[in-house]
Specification:
The protein is of the alpha+beta class and 209 residues long. The protein has 6 helices and 10 strands.
């Protein structure tokens, strides 16, 4: 068996290839090169957005280079692999607007232990309309129902109240507060960790069904 076909599957159903995911109002699709201009002009350059970004693949000093890195994240097979989706607002009857309003991600943190990390970033203009909840829920379904994750977690800047509220809406519990874990832009930042177990997610889905 070659290294191209081996995986770190463990308890997860790997490999998993990226694909488009549709929800009632959104389309989650793999990133493309054409996203660079819109992302840079839209939300990736906003200081009120990037101050809270924690993903390994974000580097705001070299956006073109790092978009290429994000585009390459299209397959889950080993620990550390990730998928990043552009979140596109579907056109309505009175609009042809398909603009990208954010992006969401899944990373395999431990295939052996079925641990997956979820992340998101959205333009502040769409906050409060349920888009982030809709997109994140779609990714949780992939993580639990298709990958077979036992636990999905999110790491947040502890000052990011909007993301903390989203975690709570998704049914996630705050598991830890890591004080002064990261040194960013000359200051220490606390990191909050929110987690959700497979049985807890199944319970929330049963209630909403």
């Amino acid at each position: 068996m070659t290294s191209e076909t081996t995986t770190d599957a463990g308890l997860l159903a790997l490999p998993f290839e990226t694909r488009e995911i549709s929800t009632e109002r959104l389309r989650l699709r793999p990133l493309t090169k054409s996203d660079l201009e819109s992302r840079s002009a839209n939300y990736q350059k906003r200081t009120d957005v990037v101050r809270y970004l924690r993903w390994e693949v974000h580097d705001h000093d070299e956006p073109a280079k790092n978009l290429e890195k994000r585009i390459a994240l299209d397959r889950l097979a080993h620990d550390g692999d990730g998928l990043i989706f552009a979140v596109e607002l579907c056109a309505t009857d009175d609009s042809d607007d398909h603009r990208v309003i954010g992006d969401v991600s899944l990373f395999v943190k431990s295939a052996k232990d079925a641990q997956v990390e979820i992340g998101w970033v959205f333009h502040p203009a769409v906050h409060g309309r349920g888009f982030a909840t809709e997109a994140a829920t779609a990714l949780l379904k992939v993580a639990f129902d298709e990958l077979g994750a036992h636990r999905v977690y999110a790491e947040l800047d502890a000052a990011n109240e909007a993301s903390a509220r989203l975690c709570e809406i998704l049914g996630m519990s705050r598991e830890a507060l890591l004080r002064d874990r990261d040194h960013v832009d000359g200051e220490w930042r606390d990191v909050a960790i929110f987690g959700l177990l497979d049985r807890e997610f199944a319970a929330t889905q049963a209630v909403s069904a």
